[in-house]
Amino acid sequence: MSSSLRSSFFRHVAQTAPEPDGFEVSRGQGVYLYDLEGKPFIDCISGIAVSSLGHGHPKITAAIKAQLDLHLHTSVYGEHVQQPQIALAEKLASLLPDPLDCTYFTNSGAEAVEGALKLARKYTSRYEIVACRQAYHGSTAGAESLRSDLDHIAAARPLVPGIRHITFNVTDDLSTITENTAAVIIEPVQGEAGAIVPDTGYLKALRDRCDQTGTMLILDEIQTGMGRTGSLWAFEQEGVVPDILLLAKALGGGLPLGAFISSRDKMHVLSHNPILGHLTTFGGHPLSCAASLAAIEIILEEHLPENAAKQGKRIKDQLKDHPAIREVRGRGLMMAIELKDPNRLLSAVKDCRQEGLLVDWFLFNDRSLRLAPPLIISDEEVEMVCTKISRALKTK
Ligand code: PLP
């Protein structure tokens, strides 16, 4: 990168990370990102589970260009009848079990979380929300209030009130969900905690407890959705259906798009008493919806959930016995590589970079590398990823 570009990056683009990744992107193609010198890097981050179809997929580009020639934004959310938005809402309804047939489109994941919390409180006329420790649901005020790490919530005070925490996979905690609880919000595989998979039956027990107490179950599939865990929706592997489903990240095919999805009768509470119970200007932007629809078609046509399951297993099998690795965890291509020596974490990210591989770390797990490659990754590319990781983790 030219030094002036780098200094402008630090001077004029607001930063919140002490040491931003600083990868200098020139272009992307397939699973590769290229730096300014044209050097290729295998992208095993995917913009944190966003670029599931890799970079520059021709069908996504074509869908965006076709919509670009028709129209961009025309009106605030829900006023105009826009073809890409309707086609996408219909498609989602066709791919989801009953009663998930009604979508409210947002710009981002956090905005979907906010909408879902409002919907649950309004629908149940209850106040309390239960969230999991070590979950991340976004950085807006309501989503941030769901966090359990004290540093963050201390700095964010006053928090949105009425939030309590349980620990993921601790079945005993479920008894604290009561007739006062409006909703439980949970990720089907905990992302920022380090790709923590639910124990067998845990989410089913949670669903049962919610049914007993009339509590709504909000599943945050913002990272897990769209095929990443080996099925189109992670909840399919758990035998549960949420009352509200949250999507974002890969939903937009690389453009900004989020959604909270529920049943028509539940969504009804946002349009009555008072009217206009939730508003957004850009949510469900026609370009994002056109890209999303194309992305879903590709995911289905190219059997990408199946590829995610297959390639995730191959990576696990190839790396699990590496002397520097304690465990390879996760589901599908939402993976964590836990190192035996946590002090190696940051240098391991850098050593992978030297090998031409982009990997990352997690917000709440200081001993694991994040691996979230595009779901289109091939057998040969997985071989290269495993070779590069093995070399990067060699004892020095
Ligand atoms: N929920 C989960 C599980 C996430 O991983 C994230 C972002 O990382 C969010 C919500 C927030 O999404 P966004 O960054 O689009 O607001």
Brief account:
The protein has helices at residues 3-12, 46-49, 58-70, 83-95, 109-124, 141-145, 150-156, 202-213, 264-267, 286-301, 304-319, 345-354, 379-392, and strands at residues 25-29, 32-35, 40-43, 102-106, 128-132, 163-166, 181-186, 216-220, 244-247, 258-262, 325-331, 334-339, 357-358, 360-361, 368-371. It is of the alpha/beta class and 396 residues long.
Walkthrough of the structure:
The chain folds into 2 domains: 241 residues, Aspartate Aminotransferase, domain 2, CATH 3.40.640; 78 residues, Aspartate Aminotransferase, domain 1. The protein contains 13 helices and 15 strands. Strands 4-10-9-8-7-5-6 form a 7-stranded mixed β-sheet, with helices on both faces. Helix 12 packs across helix 13. It is globular and about 60 Å long. The chain starts with a helix and ends with a helix. The site of pyridoxal-5'-phosphate (PLP) has 14 residues, from helix 5.
- Mean model confidence by pLDDT: 96
The unreliable regions are none
What name does CATH use for the topology of the largest domain? Aspartate Aminotransferase, domain 2
Q: Find the count of extended strands (DSSP E, 2+ residues).
A: 15
Beta-strand level of the residues, as a percent range? 15-25%
Termini Cα gap: 29 Å
Q: Give me the side-by-side strand order of the main sheet.
A: 4-10-9-8-7-5-6
Largest sheet composition: 7 strands, mixed
Radius of gyration: 21 Å
Helicity, in percent?
A: 25-40%
What structural class is derived from the secondary structure elements? alpha/beta
